[in-house]
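Folding problem:
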Amino acid sequence: MTKPLTNYRWTICALVFFATTINNLDRQVVSLLKPNLEAAGLFGADPAHYESTYANIVIAFQLGFASGMLILGRVIDKFGTKIGYAASLLGWSLAAIAHAFARTPFGFGVARVALGVPEAGNYPGAIKTTAEWFPKKERALATGISISGTNIGAIIAPIVVPLIAVSMGWQWAFIITGAIGLVWLIFWQVLYDTPEKKLAQGRISQSEYNHIISDKEDTVAADGSAFKKFNWFKLLTYRQTWAFFIGKFLTDPVWWFILFWLPAFLKEQYGLTDTHVSFPIALVYTMTTIGSIFGGWLPKRLIERGMDANKARKRAMFIFALFPLSVLTVQYAGSFNMWYAVIIIGIAGSAHQAWSANIFTTVSDMFPKRAVASVTGIGGMAGAVGGILISKSAGLLFDHYKAAGDIRVGYGIIFMICATAYIIAWVIMNLLVPKFKTVELE
């Protein structure tokens, strides 16, 4: 039988979607409460250094995130998706709540590190879950739907977080958003397990199971036991690992910049208030949601029309790498009307999410399932390091040009970096790995 009779794998996809929504919701609270946190003294006492201090707090999160990527990717591969993903989400939910009790810049920075480490487990867990539950031809679409939760969280946050802060205080914004993850854990424990166990439990049909494993890759045993062990350091000897590493290092900083600096950009450039900035941000992330799903749909469509999977993936990534070049015009277009700038940033963000749906899928294209979370963690660490570099650069540039009386120059430099990152990454990845071929792990 070639078609599944049930679609339980899409229930699993929905679980990952909601986890990613919560993940992004928790991390975005700080950017939306920046004025509240400044007033509370959490960025220090000197307004002249607010931008640099904010950058350092962003970097504190990214340092934790980078470290967590290396640690949790391997942990999830070793202990399995169900335990590893749940532990990750429990950790970041508790850390998000802990922000409410910070009273100094140092204490707030510690809370950001504590949030970053377990939040890093979301993407290795999500990509490994997709690799376990979907055949290759559906993985980009499933990944696109899953990571679109990033955008939904970003849409919800600017609407809900300021309202909570105004009505209940900024501390409750952290407490309430952090507590949502604890609810997700209940559904995860009830609904998730490996396809092998779900088949044994009668929750999925034999036909759906056959569909899931149709690529004839290595899978877990029927009893759910772990994959064969492999040498983690050996992963660093493969060109495929470095292709993913460099691709994430160059392109993830763009998303980090949009996530943490877009509200500040709109306030600085166009004088928007906290309440007025919500709708432009929501529009940007609504656009990026479409990009996530379209990014997963396009290679699937190309494959269904007879194109080789490797060629389909690379062609889709090349198309998505071209759209961010529009960011080179964002300030000029925005000088006529703010909404032109918002739409251009939305297009670039959509392209990033479409690119992400495919670059994440290249891991399961190039590596067996037992190493997917580990390689995803290595690349995620590279992306976080790139995010640290752009955050530090942005803080220094914005402080400098704000003091000089024209912060727009600083934004212009960062926009140039964001615009060209994807096409450079695509070229390097193609030079390193001309074809996404699965490696044979020893």
Remarks:
- The chain has a mean pLDDT of 84.
- The chain is about 75% helix and 0% strand.
- The first helix runs from residue 8 to 32.
